[in-house]
């Protein structure tokens, strides 16, 4: 039975500090690791899977530890406590990390942390190139300066909480049988992750992004975007690609959708894919259609969540739609 996030992607389970440090360094970066309590026995685990430019990890140490990676240089980290707590320092900032306050690190700031023995972490490693590329799309221009996030992120409520809960849910679902790491889903997930991180977590571009979002796209562009998606719902539409097709900043387009349709672009795209699947099943031949293949083709990487979302949207299961 799978009990930990990403457990089917176990990288190692070790009681040896040198082995733990070496194996983690290969996946993340070179770092110093020490057990803070001489009487405590290290019982470290790491589960890890790579998408495209994002690495998803689950980490626990089983003992209080001090970790010093220094500057990560080539990647950002979103680090969240599922259990336990810690004190994280980056540059001149210090944060008491917990289940309600996660950490977002920046590549050029020296990082070090002390973690309690009961710590269980979700750790998302995000390539610098991906973050810079998404920021460029959001701004409609090259960023110019390196991106620096505020270290602590409050996820106790509001949009940050919803973003964080979705992130954890997606990571947990990847550890369940019956899921697929579909490339279509991976690309959308990575853009969704980074776009929301840039918008929700304060950084040195937050004011520019807020100014763009303050001028929502007009209703005619929202209508045009809707027409584009419905004309080809199976295309790999994302907020940034849709904004690019219309020649409008993604932040303005998202604001326009929120104002004129009452939902964000990623939510709209998900609903449209479900809507297209409904019509496919409604008019399909039960003897020729496999629901698992339909879900996979339409970019739903977890058939359990696909069936759940479908049922919640249409009031019946996919199988019922197909067979009536």
TrEMBL record:
<dbReference type="Pfam" id="PF12833">
    <property type="entry name" value="HTH_18"/>
</dbReference>
<feature type="domain" description="HTH araC/xylS-type">
    <location>
        <begin position="223"/>
        <end position="324"/>
    </location>
</feature>
<keyword id="KW-0804">Transcription</keyword>
<protein>
    <submittedName>
        <fullName>Helix-turn-helix domain-containing protein</fullName>
    </submittedName>
</protein>
<keyword id="KW-0805">Transcription regulation</keyword>
<keyword id="KW-0238">DNA-binding</keyword>
<dbReference type="Pfam" id="PF14525">
    <property type="entry name" value="AraC_binding_2"/>
</dbReference>
<dbReference type="InterPro" id="IPR018060">
    <property type="entry name" value="HTH_AraC"/>
</dbReference>
<dbReference type="InterPro" id="IPR035418">
    <property type="entry name" value="AraC-bd_2"/>
</dbReference>
<dbReference type="InterPro" id="IPR050204">
    <property type="entry name" value="AraC_XylS_family_regulators"/>
</dbReference>
